[in-house]
Every structure is written in C-alpha cells, then in structure tokens.
Specification:
mainly alpha; 13 helices; flat; 3 domains; about 240 residues; homodimer; disordered N terminus; about 60% helix; DNA-binding; Arc Repressor Mutant, subunit A
Chain lengths: ~240, ~240
DNA sequence: ACCTGAACACCGTTCAAGT
DNA sequence: ACCTGAACACCGTTCAAGT
C-alpha cells in the first residue's frame, strides 16, 4: 500500500465523487461488456460517469489509449501458477487462462488479437516466464525466437476467432441469412462438407452465426492446445 | 456470361459513369488499403466516387455489409492448386496463400479474424476441399470436427496477429513509447527475456511497434505452419 | 489539479424528392 | 432504377475558461 498524506477537513473531490484513471477504465470495461465495442463511445462513458466527455481526457490522451488500459485490466489474471520449468503444463495453463479471461470479456477480443495497441498493456513478467519455459523445453537461438512467436500466435489466434464479434446492428437479420446459407449447401456441389453439415452447423468455425459466448468450442480448443504443444515438440527435434 | 438486352441510343447511366456494386467494393478496398480501416468512411468513399454518401446505400444496406464484400474481394485467391488428397501439402499451401492475400491488403486483417461478418463472404468450395483433405488424412467423426476448427484457427490466427493494425492517429508517439519500454526492460526483473531482447526487439510478437507490413515474420510463420501440420498428425494418432 | 462548457469537423443512416 | 439533397442523431477531440 502506498503512503497516504494525512488529510484534514473535507476530502478532496477526486476521492469523494470525482474520477480517477481506475474508475474510468473500470467503467469503460463494464460498458464494453454490456453494449459492445461498436456502441461504446467516450461520450456515453462520460454520461455514465455523470461528467462532461472532455473530463475523460484528463486521465487518458485518446480513445485508443483508454482501450489499451481496458485490455490490460481484462487480462490481469492470465499468469499461470505452474512452474515454467514444466513447460508443457505451463503453456497449457497459459492458453486456458487466456481463453477464460477473454470469455469473461468477449467484446474486447478484437482489440487484443487484431490491434497492436494491446502490446502496450502486456505483462512482461509473463513474457519472461514464457521464454523461461521455452528455454527449459530446449529451445535456443533462432529456434527459440520462432517458438516464441508460435506460442503467442497460438495463445491469441484461436480465441480471437472463437470470440469474433457479431455484426452490431442487424444481428438478427444477418444470423437468419447465415443459417439459410448453411441450410442451402447441397450435396452435389459440396459433397464432403455436406456429409458433416448437420454437425458443423453453428457448432464450428465459419458455418456459424453465433460466437464463443453462446457456442463455446471447448473440445476444439483442447485439440488445438494439444496440437500446438505437440507441434512445438516436433519443432524441437526437427 | 449473363444475357444482355439489346440496347439502342445512349448507354444507361450505370454503365457509362454510374456506380455498380463492383465499382463501390473495389473502390472501398482501394481506399482501405490506402488510408486504413479507421480513417475509411462511407462518406469519404462517396467523395472518391463523386457521388452523395447516400448513393452507396443503393448497393449496400450498411457499412458492415460493405466491409463483408471487401473481405470477400480481398480473399479471392486463396484456393490451393494442390490436390486435397495430399493433405499436408494442401494445408501448407492454404496457409501460405491466405497469408499472401492478407499481406496484399493488411488493413483488413482485423475484419477477417475478429469479426463474424467475414463468414458471410466465405468460399464454401474451399471449405469443402479442406474437409476432403482432412478425410484423406484419416480424420473422422468428432475428431474431424475438431481438426477442422484447428485448421481454421491456424489459418486465421497467426496472420491476424502478424498484421494487427497500428494505432491510427498517434502512431509515431506510440511507437516511440513502445521502443522505450522495450529498451528499459532490465536484466534483474526479466532475466530470460533480457537474454534475447536485442533479437526479439521489433522483430517478434509483443515487443514490436511495427506489424507484418514492414516487419514480416516469415521464419516464424513457416515454423507455425510446420508445427500445425505436425500437431494435426499427432491429433490423428492420439 | 480537475472539471465545465462551447465549438469543430466529422460520422452512419433515414427519408423524401428528383429524373 | 438510381441518384440528389436535406436532415437527424450521433461521434472524437481541441481549446478556453472556471474553481
């Protein structure tokens, strides 16, 4: 806990009913969780907090910087408890914890995977541990650098796609169109696809109109984690 | 070719100087390539085409639908030439072609990976071939469904992260901050990370301030493709 | 230090009207 | 059928002013 100055008289506005970076970012994450990324605006956030839109700009230089803070807040708890020296267990836990964090705040998925801003909020201690794990796995030199990218891409990739955001406005109409498109896929033109259609339909990538929030891809994710770990093993012995 | 009515007199406006869905979508992709996704607007597109903003809405119901068309246009040529029965070569070519397509239009990367709208523009013949490849690999039943998701996630995942968009406005200031952050990483706190810092710096995920456009991750991508194929092999024999 | 208040230059989208 | 033209309800951000 930081040392606090002794206060006398009435408390300063910023503690009683005023803002702080923390309250702004927390409120922003809550708003995004509720209304989605498209509908979220600095102005609506200001209204929630009962201040002028410009008050936000005291704590944050612009919208992007605010979103970077939001991402950081949402990804607080991805650090695995496993010892990095047990690299397979460590990475498996990392992948699962990351997915769990995004699942709690699915609307920010596009921000993390697809925007470089998110790098600003990265926990470098976590990065350090990942490299420690890869070193213990036996990676070194150029191979280690490549393995690092493989791990990061694997960590972010599946989950970003699983929780890809739905179209904001015309979600219902869009879902109906998608459903009809899938239903219309016929055996003559798509023989292999058609064979698995009923099982793929809205239950797996591409042929779906809902995302991981309502239709989680648990089994596929576990297969992906397994495949990634095994792939890294093979990379090691290549 | 569709049958065309016999025309007499001067040509209809839509052929001479008017719009069409094709010209609108082509112009939109060109605009996004040039100015980026954030700066792109329906209004600026209209200005480019020398029409009122509302003219666009004759061809497209809304901005999202326009973007879905743009994605479809950009991903025209990802179908591999390899026979799907040679599943490893087929998937490898798929991953490479997909990456090459995104590399040509990096600004749309966030749209494909992180927005479900992109599913609307998917080539189902390609999906059919992917399943054919997986069947020939020996996948069946639930395993095939999981393998399918693994392939899609792998295809989209790495590339989405590699071409993650930079912050629009304050790109220079942001890059400088990021560079300083990386430089400041010290040996005491991040011993493993520090050991590889100079090689990781702006050359690999997370510790970078440029994306795949200026700093392509070719070697890491090839490692990722290899790891994914090997991972699928292991999935098969599990 | 922290917020109000007005203003600027934009958005996406709707609706009615023209040709 | 295809586009103009005006209008609506928003944006993010800047800047000066208040306390």
């Amino acid at each position: 806990m930081a040392v606090t100055k002794v206060r006398r008289g009435k408390p300063r506005q910023s503690e009683e009913r005023g803002l702080s970076l923390e309250t702004v970012v927390t409120a922003a994450l809550a708003a995004i969780d509720r209304v989605g990324l498209d509908a979220f605006s600095v102005r609506s956030l200001a209204q929630m907090l009962q201040v002028y839109p410009t008050a936000i700009y005291w704590y944050v230089p612009n919208r992007n910087a605010l979103l970077a803070h939001v991402v950081k807040l949402a990804l607080r708890e991805v650090m695995p408890e496993t010892d990095p020296r047990d690299w397979e267990a460590f990475l498996t836990e990392l992948f699962r914890r990351y997915r769990a964090a995004v699942k709690r705040h699915p609307n920010i998925a596009p921000l993390i995977g697809a925007q470089l801003v998110s790098n600003a909020g990265v926990d470098f201690t976590l990065v350090d541990r990942i490299i420690e794990a890869l070193e213990h796995a036996g990676f070194a030199g150029d191979k280690l650098l490549a393995a690092f990218d493989v791990v990061i891409a694997a960590k972010v990739g599946f989950v970003t796609v699983e929780f890809a955001n739905l179209p904001a406005e015309d979600a219902l109409r869009w879902a109906e169109t998608m459903r009809e498109t899938v239903d219309a896929l016929d055996r003559e033109r798509y023989p292999h696809l058609h064979r698995h259609k009923v099982r793929l339909k809205n239950r797996h990538f591409i042929l779906r109109w809902e995302n991981g929030v309502t239709v989680p891809l648990d089994k596929s994710f576990e297969a992906y984690v397994y495949a990634t770990i095994q792939g890294l093993r093979q990379l090691l012995v290549r």
